[in-house]
Design a protein that fits this description.
single chain, three-stranded mixed β-sheet, 195 residues, binds flavin mononucleotide, 7 strands, 23% strand, 2 domains, 28% helix, 6 helices, globular, NADH Oxidase, putative fmn-dependent nitroreductase like fold, alpha+beta
Length: 195
């Protein structure tokens, strides 16, 4: 796949096929990819839990919150739920700062999943205490993010928007989800070139 196609296909998916498990080998491969990304000071404070066991997957799903218009997990039918999760942890014994590292690692994992024919969604609106208890996560880890994974069932398209157009994604009458994205000319403010 062309890199540009990979990036545009790598959307946030919240509906997945129940007949397509996410192989443990793929979960390992995705976390391995995250071992090679840049890290501030090269501290590499991120750790991961791969969750593919059905009861744990169901429990983690129940801890995904719905507190923004585009975070519609409750709109996901039971048979369309994620088949696996990667829980991203920050190891407080190594660092107390994770923000840039976590984003770089998460997008790399999702690009890898897309390249392998899967897809997913970063999720930071979480009942972290519920997840901590369910997965028995020690206090020296902070729970940064949960990445939902599976074979996407949704068709998602990018709508190019400008100005004050709404950035909220929506599903149309044909069950196609539209994700508005600002156009290049709205985000590239100036192209400075020395003559
Ligand atoms: C840092 C971060 C946190 C996010 N947290 C959530 C979340 O808690 N729940 C959710 O459903 N989506 C979450 N998303 C996904 C965004 O809603 C999604 O990226 C946005 O709607 C645009 O869709 P796209 O990823 O297909 O471009 C998150 C994305 C990012 C980058």
């Amino acid at each position: 796949m062309l890199f540009r196609d990979l990036v545009t296909k790598c959307r946030s998916y919240r509906k997945f096929s129940a007949s397509a498990a996410v192989p443990d080998e793929l979960l390992r491969d995705l976390v391995e990819l995250a071992c090679y990304v840049p890290s501030k000071g090269n501290l590499q404070p991120l750790k991961y839990l791969a969750v593919s066991d059905a009861p744990d997957v169901a429990a983690v799903f129940s801890f995904l919150l719905h507190d923004a218009p585009s975070c519609n997990w409750p709109g996901t039918a039971e048979e369309e739920r994620p088949m696996a999760f990667i829980v991203m942890l920050g190891d407080l014994r190594i660092s107390s700062e994770f923000s840039f590292d976590s984003g770089i690692a998460a997008q790399t994992i999702l690009l890898g999943a897309t390249d392998a024919g899967y897809g997913g969604c970063m999720t930071t609106s979480l009942d972290r205490e519920g997840i901590r208890e369910q997965l028995r996560i020690p206090g020296y880890f902070t729970i940064l993010m949960v990445i939902a994974l599976g074979k996407p069932l949704e068709t998602v398209v990018i709508d190019q928007i400008s100005g004050d157009d709404s950035t909220a994604s929506f599903e149309d009458a044909h069950h196609i989800r539209h994700v508005p994205k600002r156009m290049l000319d709205d985000v590239l403010l100036e192209f400075r070139k020395t003559q």
